[in-house]
């Protein structure tokens, strides 16, 4: 990262057990180009999840005035095959019956015969660009009564906010985007929420900088690049400790011009460096020498 000196590597895939179904708006108002953008978004989301019978299963429903299960939850167990299948989904056109599509997803896409697993968390991500001709309120409530978590993604300016609210159920599960080109923005938040979310770490000792926070993610603490309280950029995993064999000496200025506060900052910096070192007889050895008018070895 350019904002700090910490070395980071990509965060692990979401490996929790989730049955996840994307419900894509294929109506005439979406258009073929934007339908392709939705498919690309789903393909990118697939890359964030570990697939398999003991991990995540992903299905896809496409709807307009009728709904179709394009990919069942148990159809694929590897990312590449699933992404190829998404690429092959045809754009149907038609008018908008979101309520009927939600009913279809609940009863058919999340059925055990189509790969849904008993006792596994179930999530539906419903994307739409317009107003439904049928009322989605009752179907959305029935979906949640079936223990399916609903996320609503409204795209564009021709939206019915009341319909989106009832589909999402709770404000945190609603996303409104200006246009289809903004779908990529969801990849900073949606995979994390599907994987049980994250929370700020209060007591965990972290190597913080203004843009590097320590958050609980997928059951363990990880570094996260955060621009502000409302925008999570990405999760990062701190790189493993340095395994080299080395003798390192820190020469620390202890003169009066440094001052007590800055001297403490130097000590904090050294402690942070220690976190990345494998310290031991056959690894890294560290010494500190403090100097002013005279020098002395602290250890």
Automatic annotation (TrEMBL):
The keyword Amino-acid biosynthesis does not apply. One of its GO terms (cellular component) is extracellular region. Gene3D superfamilies: von Willebrand factor, type A domain. InterPro entries: ECM_Assembly_Org, VWF_A, vWFA_dom_sf. Keywords: Glycoprotein, Repeat, Secreted, Signal. Residues 19-190, 247-299 form the VWFA domain. CDD domains: vWA_collagen (cd01472), vWFA_subfamily_ECM (cd01450). Residues 1-16 form the signal peptide. Transmembrane segments: none annotated. It is found in: Secreted. This is VWFA domain-containing protein. It comes from Branchiostoma floridae (Florida lancelet). The lineage of its organism: Eukaryota, Metazoa, Chordata, Cephalochordata, Leptocardii.
